[in-house]
Amino acid sequence: MSSGVAARRDAKKLVRSPSGLRMVPEHRAFGSPFGLEEPQWVPDKECPRCMQCDAKFDFITRKHHCRRCGKCFCDRCCSQKVPLRRMCFVDPVRQCADCALVSHREAEFYDKQLKVLLSGAPFLVTFGDLEKPEAMVCRLSNNQRCLVLDGDSHLEIEIAHVCTVQILTEGFTPGEKDIDTYTSLLGSLPASEGSTRATGMLLQYMVPGAEAATQLRLMSGEDSSGSKRQAAAWLAAMHKATKLLYESRDQ
User: Fold this and answer.
1) Regarding predicted confidence, which is higher, 156 or 189?
2) CA angle, 116 then 105 then 181, to 5°
3) 108: left (phi over 0), alpha (psi -120 to 50) or beta
4) I need a surface site. Which of 17, 132, 145, 236 has the fewest CB within 10 A?
5) Is 81 left (phi over 0), alpha (psi -120 to 50) or beta?
6) Are 190 and 180 within 8 A, CB to CB?
7) How many CB atoms lie within 10 A of CB 82?
């Protein structure tokens, strides 16, 4: 990919919305899959009372809109200003108590797991039915839209084209194994059982023009404990990212 195309994909612009300043992609098509659209605000005339405590709005009790859900609340029920990175706000914005709690939880992903995904980790990668794996580094692209694999070959997989993700985990007790599966990032989320450590990932993705999905297998290598810990941390972050994308369906 040329540097000009890469720069165009990562370009940002500052825009002002009713909710505040946002730093958004220059081109909408290159937005992060983790991003959320700003909600439509409930019209003032449709909310004479707080949608949480039912307090009546007047000159003293003013109404405020939650920037995450768009509902109307009194100041007591919508007083927190919390970072909302999934909507690209530059500064913390006013949110109701429920939304603020969700945004606080998501902050851990942006502060920790996202940095791990962008840094990448070494894996042994097997393409399709091939038997011999290739040593590659897998990372999330800067615009968060692609998984990038670099080794003797180079591959970019758009997150939007991923059909199935399976995080392979091995329990600390030898022989115990578990798989967490996310079907099209839309299926059910089975709970992990016991204390587990991520060791690999299976994913299926669609190649434009192909009728069937392509499979890819990533496994942590056995070369050093440091590389295995790096790979395990990356896989745990990928687990969190996949869960975040799944939960976005209901937001």
Assistant:
1) 156
2) 65
3) alpha
4) 132
5) beta
6) yes
7) 19
Query: Which amino acid, 107?
Result: A
State residue 164's pLDDT score.
87
| 107-141 as b/e: b if 16+ CB within 10 A | eebeeebbebbeebbbbbbbeeeeeebeebbbbbb
Give 43-88 pLDDT, tens digit per residue.
Answer: 999 999 999 999 999 989 999 999 999 999 999 999 999 999 999 9
pLDDT on residue 168? 86
- Which among 23, 130, 25, 20 is positioned nearest to 81, based on CA atoms? 20
In 85-152, beta strands by DSSP E: 93-95, 121-127, 134-140, 146-150
Element (H, E) at 10: helix 3-10
Length, in residues, of the chain: 251
Q: What is the mean pLDDT of residues 166-180?
A: 54
In this structure, what DSSP letter does residue 29 have? G
| Long-range contacts at 213-218 (CB < 8 A, ≥ 24 apart) | 213/163, 213/164, 214/127, 214/128, 215/128, 216/125, 216/126, 216/127, 216/128, 216/157, 217/125, 217/126, 217/133, 218/123, 218/124, 218/125, 218/138
Q: How far is CA 163 from CA 101, 159, 206, in A?
A: 30, 9, 7
Question: Which residue is associated with the tokens 């600390």?
Answer: 172
What is the rounded average pLDDT for all residues in the chain?
A: 83
What is the predicted pLDDT for the residue at 155? 94
Q: Are 73 and 64 in contact (CB under 8 A)?
A: yes
